[in-house]
Amino acid sequence: MSSSNRFMHIPNHSNSDKEQRSKSLTKRQYVRFAFYRIDPVWRRLSGDEQAEQKCELLDTIQTFNRRMLLRPYSLMGTRADAELLLWLIAESPVVFQELAVAIMRTRMGAYLQMAYSYFSQTKRSIYEIRSSNNGHEERLVVQPSDARYLFVYPFIKTRDWYQMSRAARQGMMDEHIEVGRRYPAVKLNTTYCFGLDDYEFIVAFETDEPSDFLDLVQDLRETEASRYTKQDTPLFSCINMRLAEALDALGGPAIAEPLDETERPRQELWTEACRLDEIPPGESRLVYHDGRQVALFNVDGRLYALSNRCSHARGPLSEGQVDTAECTVTCPWHYAKYDLVSGRVLDGVASAPVESFAVEVRDSMIFVGTKIAALVSE
Ligand code: FES
Questions:
Q1: Ligand 1, closest atom to CA 310?
Q2: Is the pLDDT of residue 265 over 50?
């Protein structure tokens, strides 16, 4: 089954029709937090064997990069019972299963133990959450930031919470949200697991400053809604790093190439996105590149790639309406129009451009690349 979208023509419906339709267009995503720890026996293997096994595991995991968004984290030094987190986001849970099997088939997989696993899905909140995005609270697409730290925990509310009226709960959520707004540098990703896993929510907070998160959690304890928390542990403090670095943190000789931070933006970075025949002319699809979601468009044989997230309120541009004549895409949520080549806003409510990416076809395979700033002419 293809996950690409035919370019759509949106007929002249009323605004509320359009709003409903555009909301239904956006698919939920599946999310998995897979926490591993290594059998200490592995640390007694020879250095050569450890390095070889890490390289094999690294290559195996990286083959999944074009099918899901995969963020690695290390918990070495922060937690006793888990050492490595793979935060996975995809359109289907099947790819999680395939990755888990592939990992277990590697030599290092024989030493990796699954410490914790959480499986959840994105969903629009039932509560009114006014946000800086023009009041549009959007939780259907997870877009991790580049924050250094991630704090993850499963969450269950008491059954008494669900017996209260929606209005009463909304009042308490307003207070809760207000406290969260005091910490704008802490980004919350809430996903839902009612019926999918043992919990109700998995929450993941991203920040560059752990003390902000500590202060936020302490403040939240004083809110009314906190009385209705049944479980919010275990709590995992995770450090974002490249996958090779996260594997190196487990032990053995280093396999990660040293990274010169000053050189990083100049490095060429390409991702194998999909086969050319998977996106025929007139179609668009969501692909992944460098931990980001990218909307790929085939306009009469010409390929374009933009950040999938509309700069207004994160609408999914891969599901937008493409005008092949003027080479634009219109966001399906509030109709901001972007130039497919540059990502500039041409019309509508958005004020900031979206990132545009380089696209190349090599041997019938489409590659998406980060444009090097110095070479991009506006
Ligand atoms: S999300 Fe509002 S215009 Fe795209």
A1: 4
A2: no
Q: Which domains does the chain have, with CATH numbers?
A: 30-248 (3.30.70.1030), 263-375 (2.102.10.10)
Place of tokens 């592995």: 42
> What is the reported pLDDT for 377?
39
Query: Is residue 323 classed as helix, strand or coil in its secondary structure?
Result: strand
Main-chain dihedrals φ then ψ at residue 283, nearest 5 degrees: -125, 160
pLDDT of residue 288: 84
99 Cα–ligand 1 center, Å:
33
5 alpha carbon to ligand 1 midpoint, in Å? 18
Read off the pTM: 0.74
Q: Is 316 in the pocket of ligand 1 (CB under 6 A)?
A: no
* Model pLDDT for residues 76-135, shown as the tens digit of each residue: 999 999 999 999 999 899 999 999 999 999 999 999 999 999 999 999 888 876 554 433
Name the residue of 124, 310, 318, 347 to mutate for ligand 1: max ligand atoms within 8 A of Cβ. 310
Give, in order, the Cα–Cα distances in Å from 160 to each of 165, 169, 177, 230, 234.
10, 11, 20, 10, 22
* Distance between CA atoms of residues 141 and 72, nearest Å: 18
Question: Which protein residue's CA is at the shortest distance from atom 2 of ligand 1?
Answer: 334
